[in-house]
């Protein structure tokens, strides 16, 4: 190859890449670059941003922060979903008072819901905008409100109560006796724990009742011995669960973190536990919860049919009958108010209708013919 040809090839390669001459290295000699290459620096890749929780997850977190019940959480989530789907899946941030008013009016005019149901939907949306979206709603104009009817409670006579209780047996009879004999609400009875029943003082302590209030009511003498035997059976089941490593009841709020061993103590167990284990929807732990409310509701309905009652009676009817019969026996209305756990005595006043003996105590002229 001629000298001119070699120089032309060298010039052509210089425009494309750097020419590095290769030198052989003898044994024992270390290889080193005369000028080390600087590290390659590329463009800075931004760190991925934390994804913001979804809207319904934010609602759940806000509800649990305020220690609302699981029932309230489910109800609020339900109404927020219906509100979003009613407006064709628009985000609530894009909507305001007008859209809320349209949704509430449709509940009254199209769905024909009761006033309490419409108020529950309104409270759910007010919570969403005030506590989650931090965009409080102003006055909502033009809402068609469902009318709240003025109704009297259904009350059973003493023979009717006796007939219903006679058609029940087992734990269902015990719970129905507590509804009528102590004036408990359905969930008050189901959530009773062993430590809340005081046999020596003949009283029951209702913890975290409606409105997160505690109250004390009586423990009927007629139910004490059957209840003792029932708790002995429950304790046997509890000991079996502990031996199998499944003992433990759910504790309210942060008590489980504060007292780690309290969940497996006998006093914290439910007085009316479920037959099967279930998974706690919030903690995800598998435990033995209390009986589902439908167990007693179905049993009382069946007992009313077997007793041949024509009245529309249920579990809460036993509580109405408790208050009415106490007033008939001459007990002070303030005492009845405390036993029922009412905030205002006007709520308890509704049971005084029975003292009028029908028709405001007026004797019908037909009886004098």
Blueprint (SSEs and pairs):
Elements: H1 3-14, H2 55-65, H3 70-86, H4 97-109, H5 115-132, H6 158-166, H7 170-182, H8 186-190, E1 197-198, E2 203-206, E3 215-218, H9 224-243, H10 255-258, E4 278-279, E5 286-287, H11 293-307, H12 315-328, H13 333-340, H14 345-348
Antiparallel strand pairs: 1-2, 2-3, 4-5
How would you portray this structure in words?
This protein has 369 residues and is mainly alpha-helical. The chain has two domains: 55-132, DNA polymerase, domain 1 (Orthogonal Bundle), CATH 1.10.150.130; 150-359, Intergrase catalytic core (hpI Integrase, Chain A). It has helices spanning 3-14, 55-65, 70-86, 97-109, 115-132, 158-166, 170-182, 186-190, 224-243, 255-258, 293-307, 315-328, 333-340, 345-348, and strands at 197-198, 203-206, 215-218, 278-279, 286-287. The strands form two sheets. The chain has a three-stranded antiparallel β-sheet with strand order 1-2-3. It has a two-stranded antiparallel sheet with strand order 4-5. Helix 7 (170-182) packs across helix 12. The protein is globular, with a radius of gyration of 36 Å.
